[in-house]
Amino acid sequence: MAAQDPDPTAEFRRNESWLFDTTAGAYVRKTAVALLTLVVFAFVLFPLYWMVVTAFKTTAEIQQIPPTVFPNDFSLEGFRLVVESSIQAGGYTSLFANLFGWQASSAIDIDILSLVLNSLKVAIGAGAIALVFGTAASYVLSRRDFAGKNALMSIFLASLMFPGTAIMVPEWELVSALGLFNTHLVLIFIYGAMTAPFVVWLMKGFFDDFPDSIIEASRIDQCSSIETFWYVIVPMARNSLIASFIFAFLLAWNELVFALTLLDNSRYTVPPGLLTFVQGFNTQWNVVAAASIIISLPVLLGLAYIQRYFVQGLTGGAIKG
Amino acid sequence: MSYSKQARGSFESVSERIPEGVKVYLPILPVTALVGLFILYPIAQAIYSSFFNKDLLAPSEAEFIGLANYAEIWSNPTIHQVLWNTLIWVVVGSSAAIVLGFLMGWLLHEKLPYTSVASAIVLIPWVLPRVVGASIWQFMFGGSQGIINELLVQLGVIDEYIVMLGSTELSLWPPIIGMIWRLAPLFALLTLTSLQGIDEHLYEAARMDGATPWEQFRFITIPMMRYNLAIGFLLMLIYNIRNFSMIWVMTKGGPGVSSSTLPVMIYRTAFVDFDVGLASALSLILFIVLLVFSYYYIQVYDQVRGDV
């Protein structure tokens, strides 16, 4: 039908503007859109491109003026320095010398391996806390009504807005008073507290939509409410649970303020560790870029998964992409 | 079957002993305790500390000074400059990120192929570790080898490389540009998702009624997106005002306080100058602003949920 009569509304769609009614106008529009696209996306993508090419330049090329837009020599020096420096800082130099006959020696000082291990520890811990506590709470908040429920949900939502800079000073005082300064444990708790409310909101959205008939069916099969939750609902919620965990993991992986103020540099996670190196004397940018790429990989993997849940959480589940 | 019976036994033996009225609250308790201790309690602590002259390294020797910290904020021109910087940062950074993000979202939805892949790529600046993004911009704005200096020279804007990050007049702007780069993709994603959520039939009906593209945009697109735009707007304000990493990595808030906003000033006051009392008072200002933004955020959020 559409083929016979391509656009029955054409005559009603006439516009007042020459931009829409003439061929010249169409070209102007198309050119404008193309230019706009180019400028906007160059702004977004160029810094990423710059990070990648910088990582593959030699140290000599980094210091060249003017900078080269493509690397002259495709070099892995940046990555090599990161790895060697980690080997050295971790005290594995002799091990590698014996095993491979390869003497790791690095003039730079950035121990990515231990930073990553610290971050993994904190991020997995925070993810687990947020997931378990958040999901348990969200189930009850979705299924039961009780006094103060809406207020509690609002407090959780508001608490997502504060962490970081607004409370770093009193947080320092609290952590010192608890005797937990310079422990990864306290960061796990804080990141858990920062992300659990998000998990509550995300999972509550899931439970609100969960069909009652399934729960009734399991009740007829003599499941208690806890059993229904554990054996029926949790398996079906797998995707949302994974998204919740990734969200908490990424926040902990990226967080700078608390890691910087509540840890000594011996126990730094990735963000303050990289910061120290960047702000150090005579920064070697190919090493920074190489290290940046390494520590960004988990984030990029997680992104692919959580993108749509992320919008859902921010907008109250109004739109489900 | 056998495993479920076993599990039921252990669950029930615990759960039978707890009265029903209390049981509802149990699963909520851990989150509430965690949030209460690590997020809400510190706010109360900040109120308390703001009335003291307190040294970070000797907190036990704190001395009650009433409102002196607030008087200091009221009269100190350095802090005024920081507040002014914060205002510029929030207004310029948010509006630029919103305009750019809206354009990006619209282009992704209307004009570009491979929308899902393209939007994931566009979102990278937002999810990249904060320090990584800020480091890239610091490198690009570098005074001796920075690509942005080279670009400006090529375009004829400047004659020779300038040290933007070390200049009192200019240092506020590079971090704002970095922040726009980080936040615009988030707004683009919100725009894109809400554009995708609009029913095509609405446009069809409008076209039947003779609506021009502009009218369709004005009377369908914008109204349909209003909640998401409101949420996006508030998120831009919130993320901009509480940002620390972009500035701290690029300029450390310097030279002087020329590129410091409130969060950077709080950090410097507490952890460089060790003045916990003044830093707490500054934190409270930031907290109150965030509270206002959050209030509106929750209002919009409730509206969204009420409408769906």
TrEMBL record, chain A:
Q: Which InterPro entries match?
A: BP-dep_ABC_trans_perm (IPR050901), MetI-like (IPR000515), MetI-like_sf (IPR035906)
The transmembrane residues are 32-52, 122-142, 151-169, 181-203, 241-263, 283-306
One example of a Gene Ontology biological process annotation: transmembrane transport
Q: Which CDD domains match?
A: TM_PBP2
Q: What is this protein called?
A: Sugar ABC transporter permease
Report domain ABC transmembrane type-1 positions. Answer: 116-306
What SUPFAM superfamilies would the database entry show?
MetI-like
| Higher taxonomy | Archaea, Methanobacteriati, Methanobacteriota, Stenosarchaea group, Halobacteria
| Entry membrane topology | Multi-pass membrane protein
Q: Keywords assigned by UniProt?
A: Cell membrane, Membrane, Transmembrane, Transmembrane helix, Transport
Report the superkingdom from the record.
Archaea
**What cellular component GO annotations does this protein have?**
plasma membrane
Major location (coarse): membrane
Where does this protein reside within or beyond the cell?
Cell membrane
**What family is this protein classified in?**
Belongs to the binding-protein-dependent transport system permease family.
From TrEMBL, chain B:
One Gene Ontology CC term in the entry: plasma membrane
Alphabetized, the UniProt keywords read: Cell membrane, Membrane, Transmembrane, Transmembrane helix, Transport
Entry-linked Pfam families: BPD_transp_1 (PF00528)
Q: Quote the subcellular location field of this record.
A: Cell membrane
Q: Which PANTHER family match?
A: BLR7065 PROTEIN, SPERMIDINE_PUTRESCINE TRANSPORT SYSTEM PERMEASE PROTEIN
Name of this chain's protein: Sugar ABC transporter permease
From which lineage does this chain's organism come? Archaea, Methanobacteriati, Methanobacteriota, Stenosarchaea group, Halobacteria
Q: InterPro entries, per this entry? A: MetI-like, MetI-like_sf
Tell me the ranges covered by the ABC transmembrane type-1 domain, including all copies: 83-297
Instruction: Tell me the CDD domains matching this sequence.
Output: TM_PBP2
Bilayer topology: Multi-pass membrane protein
Which spans are transmembrane here? Answer: 24-44, 87-108, 120-140, 172-192, 227-250, 270-298
Into which family does the record put it? Answer: Belongs to the binding-protein-dependent transport system permease family.
Q: What's a single GO BP term from this record?
A: transmembrane transport
